[in-house]
Amino acid sequence: MGHKVHPYGFRLGIVTDWKSRWYAEGNQYRQYVLSDDRIREYLKNLLPHAAISRIEIERTRERVRVDVHTARPGIVIGRRGVQADEIRGTLEQMETKAARAVTGKDVNIQVHDAQGGQHRDQGGGPGRQDLLCRPPRRRRDEPP
């Protein structure tokens, strides 16, 4: 009998990258894992209609970078960046409480288009025009 391996873990480090990138020792590791989980839950509950596909978190000594991959970046950013500023402020408060320090870490939020910026009308793949220019497909049993 074979052992079942989760596809994400099977591809991790080869094709896909980690969801969180940081290094910690001892008790700090536990705090970072819990904080990352809180950040992901907060963003998914705050923006359920934004079609968030992936949230990546990178930590350094003085900064936390949160990359949000979404199909609808306008909803996450908001008008003139108001929604993004509110999210940034809330995440900075969460980091201050998690670290139990007077000064929290700077939180940097980056919103990425989940489609990678390659829309069909921008030449990223075969679009409708490509399909209209080709002759229709024939079956093998049809005479030419």
The total number of structural domains is: 1
Radius of gyration: 22 Å
What share of residues are in beta strands? Answer: 15-25%
Q: Describe the global form.
A: flat
Question: What is the CA-CA span between the terminal residues?
Answer: 51 Å
Structural class, by secondary structure, is alpha/beta
Description:
By secondary structure, the chain is of the alpha/beta class. It has 5 helices and 4 strands; from the N terminus they run αβαββααβα. The protein has a 4-stranded mixed sheet. Strand 2 and strand 3 form a beta hairpin. The chain is flat and about 75 Å long.
SSE blueprint and pairings:
Elements: H1 7-11, E1 20-21, H2 27-46, E2 52-59, E3 63-70, H3 73-77, H4 82-99, E4 106-113, H5 128-133
Parallel strand pairs: 1-2, 3-4
Antiparallel strand pairs: 2-3
Quick structural overview:
With 144 residues, this protein is α/β, with parallel strands linked by helices.
Task: Based on the model shown, name its key terms.
flat; 4 strands; 18% strand; 144 residues; 4-stranded mixed β-sheet; GMP Synthetase, Chain A, domain 3
